[in-house]
């Protein structure tokens, strides 16, 4: 496509890739994390609904556990989802990075903006999703939702022996640190390039764009976009859902 015929960013279509292939061992034994229920509904369905709630998102690609694509497909079929959104399910890989790349491989050509959202962040509010999309449409190649930290962060060195105290080596200035969430938003070509070039183990997609030397910007995240990682997070997530139901008047 020539530069002249490219749609303007304001018209660019948006797809979301949801990596949901992790086992979630820190939550304890049981089903893959994304398939655990929150108030009776699988975490993945909450996450899919959260992204599809944005009227800008017209396709959601779910990256299922490698042997669980059929199960995830039936799960999507069994739950009410918006009609205006298309859904695709693809099998994932060994690492989060590989799962995202497999999701990107399935992305039809017309999508110019891609969001990558952890299934493990089922409660992200639609305003956060839309703020990320808006910043990409305004021209940022990569956008992360981020929050200031409550805790002071220390960098430590490995302990002398297992179980021994770890030596603290540095204290980064807290006011300049941010905890980064998802959905992270990207100009599609930038994200595809990053996944084609960066092979290091990374914990988010924006860091791959940083490694290419391209700018990444942060917009305000939201406390309800927390990642469900440990058993206590499940309790917190159910409390957030209960509060929403009360506020919605049900
Ligand atoms: O492991 P962590 O909780 O950071 O995973 C973040 C997200 O990446 C989760 O939604 C998880 O399902 C996904 N993931 C994946 N494929 C893997 C590992 C993690 O899709 N192999």
Describe this structure in words.
This protein has 250 residues and is an alpha/beta fold. The chain has a single domain, classed as Spore Coat Polysaccharide Biosynthesis Protein SpsA, Chain A, CATH 3.90.550. The protein contains seven helices and twelve strands. The protein has helices at residues 43-52, 69-78, 96-105, 126-137, 188-197, 206-211, 231-247; strands at residues 13-19, 37-38, 41-42, 57-64, 86-91, 111-116, 142-148, 155-156, 168-170, 178-180, 184-187, 217-220. The strands form three sheets. Strands 1, 4, 5, 6, 7, 10, 11 and 12 form an eight-stranded mixed sheet that branches. The chain is globular and about 55 Å long. The mean pLDDT is 93. Cytidine-5'-monophosphate (C5P) binds at residues 19-22, 33-34, 63, 92-96, 99, 118-120, 229.
Write the SSE topology.
Layout: E1 13-19, E2 37-38, E3 41-42, H1 43-52, E4 57-64, H2 69-78, E5 86-91, H3 96-105, E6 111-116, H4 126-137, E7 142-148, E8 155-156, E9 168-170, E10 178-180, E11 184-187, H5 188-197, H6 206-211, E12 217-220, H7 231-247
Parallel strand pairs: 1-4, 1-6, 4-5, 7-12
Antiparallel strand pairs: 2-3, 6-11, 7-10, 7-11, 8-9
Produce a short descriptive summary.
The protein has 250 residues and is α/β, with parallel strands linked by helices. The chain is 30% helix and 22% strand. It has one domain (13-145, 179-248): Spore Coat Polysaccharide Biosynthesis Protein SpsA, Chain A.
